[in-house]
TrEMBL record:
Name under which the protein is recorded: Amino acid ABC transporter permease
Keywords: Amino-acid transport, Cell membrane, Membrane, Transmembrane, Transmembrane helix, Transport
ABC transmembrane type-1 domain span: 80-273
Record localization: Cell membrane
CDD domains found in the cross-reference section: TM_PBP2
Species per Swiss-Prot/TrEMBL record: Actinoallomurus oryzae
Pfam families: BPD_transp_1
Positions of the UniProt region annotated as Disordered: 1-27
TM annotation in the entry: 32-51, 80-104, 125-145, 255-273
InterPro entries the record matches: AA_ABC_transptr_permease_3TM (IPR010065), ArtM/GltK/GlnP/TcyL/YhdX-like (IPR043429), MetI-like (IPR000515), MetI-like_sf (IPR035906)
Keyword field contains Transport: yes
Signal peptide: none
């Protein structure tokens, strides 16, 4: 073996390849510059139209009062932690409930018909009832039953209503993920000696869960916002605190404080969801890897 065979020459990009890369960089910089300029011009037009409107002084005083924002923000922030607690407790419960319902709907055989019918009825009913109505029905209806051992805390009852409502949506997301797995995957697992439960646990579910992560995160972004619906039952969460301050001062700036807190939590989650969706699309593309 010669020296040239042991140490092959390093690969060097051709002049045409280097020119293509330079052209792509120039195009990228040009596109970014055009996007930045158009964004600045658009925002300037919107802000100018808003500020020049006849009712702007009244709107600024009513919705954008810095003093009212500073006074209400500590209480709204304190209430926002209750929203976060409801979200963190409800999320794993929704995942578990949704997965169980999806698995129930995937059962085969006539003996499992009652379970499938119950799962279908649950998803149909709780997806059909508006979430705020469900909060009212559970929040005020369950305490009226005077059942021993059933919690009467409005935050708990409101969280239970969110779990029941979002569990139906998440169940359909899981079911779509399970149905998206090609039947050959199950057949291959069964041919290796795995039982139906084992093939579902070790072959189907891991792939299905990975596929439905982006839509699940979208649902949980909506869940974080819908925790504000619990305010109708009376717990002092962010929206309720904003309502109290607004009722005292007849100023709506506290609602802006609550909105900013929700935005600070949901926007990063939305961008993370977009990142996961883009990564999944690249993996599915030819040559995208695993």
């Amino acid at each position: 073996m010669t020296t040239s065979d042991a140490n092959p020459p390093a690969w060097v990009k051709s002049a045409r390849q280097l020119e293509r890369e330079r052209q792509r960089r120039r195009t990228g910089r040009r596109s970014a510059s055009v996007a930045a300029v158009s964004t600045v011009v658009f925002l300037a037009l919107v802000i100018g139209l808003l500020v020049s409107s006849p009712g702007w002084p009244r709107v600024r005083q009513t919705f954008f009062s810095v003093g009212q924002l500073g006074d209400a923000f500590p209480d709204v922030l304190r209430g926002f932690w209750l929203n976060v607690e409801i979200f963190l407790i409800a999320e794993p419960l929704i995942l578990g409930l949704g997965l169980l319902v999806a698995l129930a709907r995937s059962l085969t055989g006539p003996v499992f018909f009652p379970i499938r019918a119950l799962a279908v009825g649950y998803t149909d009913v709780f997806r059909g009832v508006p979430t705020i109505l469900l909060v009212y029905l559970i929040g005020f209806g369950v305490p009226a039953l005077n059942l021993r051992g059933v919690p009467s805390d409005p935050a708990v009852l409101g969280g239970a209503a969110l779990v029941l409502s979002y569990g139906a949506y998440v169940a359909e997301v899981f079911r779509a993920g399970i149905d998206s797995i090609h039947p050959s995957q199950r057949a291959a697992a069964r041919s290796l000696g795995l039982s139906h439960v084992q093939s579902l646990r070790f072959v189907v579910l891991p792939q299905a869960v990975r596929r439905v992560v982006p839509p699940l995160l979208n649902d949980f972004s909506s869940l974080q916002k819908d925790t504000a619906l619990v305010a109708v039952l009376g717990p002092l969460e962010a929206l309720r605190q904003a309502q109290i301050h607004s009722a005292d001062t007849f100023n709506y700036t506290p609602f802006l404080a609550a909105a900013l807190l929700f935005i600070a939590l949901t926007v990063p989650l939305a961008r993370f969801t977009d990142h996961l969706a883009a990564r999944a699309e690249r993996r599915r593309a030819p040559g995208g890897g695993t």
